[in-house]
């Protein structure tokens, strides 16, 4: 139920929902049952009312700020899923039988310990040990524990990103996977912490009883496009200058680099998925692009733009990345006794893109671990007695600096890459970018940067400079790419095939800044 629409209908009722959500959900579900919704023969109808679209003010709360004032009230938090447990059965209604008179009573269980009735209503006996639990006649539902971590971009200063446990039930289980960014609406609850001696502590742990989950990231194939936007996309496709316009729209604040932008555009569109050779071998449809260039040539800015444009993209820095962080790792299950496999960045980005900056700063053995992922698009793992494979259909955009910090024009280009030949062979397009001293070009670059700063200042005041606005907006370009990926299957033309077959030195020319 959309809370914003409910507030427009009855503001007091919407306030009651946020202040007393347990009662509001109960009333709403009772009202739906009273309507008499038709069900399959003999099926019991148990509706779930899930409130969503809470106003950001005052209900959007940072994880670290969830406190006593939010207890048993609706709140919404944003974060990334860091860990999930297996699905487990939870007893919703416990059936207890009196040991003296054998009368039975059904008790609604909370999300903590099972507590038997204090007294038998039939024989009147009181005290501990007078009831036994009838498990086979009790009612169960599926539940799942999930850890949510605060979005790093919302954390201020040097504070660590706070975490909170989420409690998912019934249709919400298995709805999220590690690495997904989500907007969660839920009721803040407490459970007592257990001391080392087994007693109950006076300090309580908090968790969010989830009411609704909205994913903040999508694959291109999941992007929603309206009929009006579809008509706009089809009209745009008829423009003979479309390839040029798309390249100009990618990171328009960065001067030049048209070839690199065209390559990134091709990477975003991708190839024809699920191609299989007659012998059963699958052909990769994702394009991997490597930018190797002098400092200050706009590599990182291009990657950050792609991370904003692609609906699903994970951006990481090579200096702080490891093999297990990019592929997969085995970790102790925080919710149980065993081990769990935790997916890395390239697995979590499957169906989208991954951007790795400062690629050369990764350890050589860590870079070597991603060879299989780049070519076969799978990550195989055998750890802690578990042997499995993760799908990693991810397009990689990587950026690196030359071996000696800057390119030396007197030396062969290929010898100045600080990357292994086996890894370089996994990339489909490699751009060596040299910052060449050119007075005319430098003047144009400076003018472009100054114009960008002026435009940003005008945009802040609500009057953007039209001369620097990209030909295609970020939102429209994202939807154009999504529409093309859904409705087209690119084929290699004879002209393109001939160009690919032409023998030449791949590093005979520079891309200049």
Notes on the structure:
With 513 residues, this protein is of the alpha/beta class. The protein folds into three domains: 1-52, no CATH class; 54-216, OB fold (Dihydrolipoamide Acetyltransferase, E2P), CATH 2.40.50; 220-435 and 470-512, P-loop containing nucleotide triphosphate hydrolases (Rossmann fold, 3-Layer(aba) Sandwich). Helix content is 28%, strand content 26%. The radius of gyration is 28 Å and the shape is elongated.
Oligomer: single chain
Bin the strand percentage: 25-35%
The total tally of domains equals 3
* Secondary-structure class: alpha/beta
How large is the radius of gyration?
28 Å
Specify the overall morphology: elongated
Mind telling me the CATH class of the largest domain?
Alpha Beta
Spans of 5+ residues with little confidence (pLDDT < 50)? Answer: none
Would you give the CATH topology of the largest domain?
Rossmann fold
Give the strand tally.
20
Largest sheet, order of strands side by side? 12-15-18-11-19-20
Q: Helix tally?
A: 16
If you average the pLDDT, what whole number results? 81
């Amino acid at each position: 139920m959309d809370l914003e629409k409910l507030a427009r209908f009855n503001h007091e009722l919407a306030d009651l929902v946020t202040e007393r959500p347990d009662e509001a959900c109960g009333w709403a579900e009772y009202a739906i049952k009273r309507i008499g919704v038709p069900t399959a023969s003999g099926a019991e109808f148990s509706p779930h009312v899930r409130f969503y679209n809470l106003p950001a003010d005052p209900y959007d709360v940072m994880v670290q700020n969830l406190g006593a004032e939010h207890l048993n009230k609706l709140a919404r938090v944003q974060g990334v899923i860091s860990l999930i447990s297996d699905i487990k059965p939870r007893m919703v209604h416990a059936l207890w039988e009196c040991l003296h008179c054998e009368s039975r009573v059904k008790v609604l269980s909370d999300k903590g310990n099972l507590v038997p009735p204090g007294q038998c209503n039939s024989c009147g006996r009181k005290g501990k040990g007078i009831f036994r639990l009838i498990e086979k006649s009790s009612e169960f539902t599926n539940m799942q524990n999930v850890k949510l971590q605060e979005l790093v971009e919302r954390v201020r200063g040097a504070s660590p990103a706070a975490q909170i446990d989420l409690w998912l039930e019934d249709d919400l289980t298995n709805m999220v996977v590690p690495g997904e960014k989500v907007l969660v609406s839920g009721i803040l609850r407490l459970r007592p912490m257990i001391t080392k001696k087994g007693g109950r502590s006076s300090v309580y742990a908090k968790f969010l009883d989830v009411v609704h989950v909205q994913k903040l990231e999508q694959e291109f194939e999941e992007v929603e496009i309206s009929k009006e936007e579809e008509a706009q996309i089809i009209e745009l496709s008829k423009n003979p200058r479309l390839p040029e316009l798309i390249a100009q729209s990618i990171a328009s604040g960065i001067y030049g680099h048209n070839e690199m932008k065209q390559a990134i555009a091709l990477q975003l569109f991708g190839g024809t998925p699920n191609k299989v050779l007659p012998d059963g071998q699958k052909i990769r449809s994702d394009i991997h692009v490597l930018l190797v260039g002098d400092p200050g040539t706009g590599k990182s800015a291009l990657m950050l733009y792609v991370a904003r444009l692609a609906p699903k993209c994970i951006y990481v820095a090579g200096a702080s990345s490891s093999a297990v962080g990019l592929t997969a790792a085995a970790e102790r299950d925080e919710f149980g006794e065993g081990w769990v496999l935790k997916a890395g960045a390239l697995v979590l980005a499957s169906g989208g893109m991954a951007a790795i900056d400062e690629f050369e700063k990764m350890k050589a053995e860590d870079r070597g671990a991603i060879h299989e992922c780049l070519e076969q698009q799978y990550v195989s793992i055998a750890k802690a007695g578990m042997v499995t494979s993760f799908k990693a259909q991810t397009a990689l955009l990587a950026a690196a600096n030359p071996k000696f910090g800057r390119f030396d024009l007197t030396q062969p280009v290929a010898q100045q890459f600080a990357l292994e030949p086996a890894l370089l062979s996994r990339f489909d397009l490699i751009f060596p970018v040299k910052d060449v001293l050119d007075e005319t070009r430098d003047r144009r670059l400076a003018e472009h940067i100054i114009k960008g700063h002026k435009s940003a200042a005008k945009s802040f005041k609500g009057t953007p400079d039209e001369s620097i606005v990209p030909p295609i907006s970020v939102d429209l370009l994202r939807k154009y790419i999504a529409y093309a990926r859904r409705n087209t299957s690119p084929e290699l033309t004879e002209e393109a095939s001939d160009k690919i077959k032409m023998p030449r030195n791949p590093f005979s020319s520079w891309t200049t800044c």
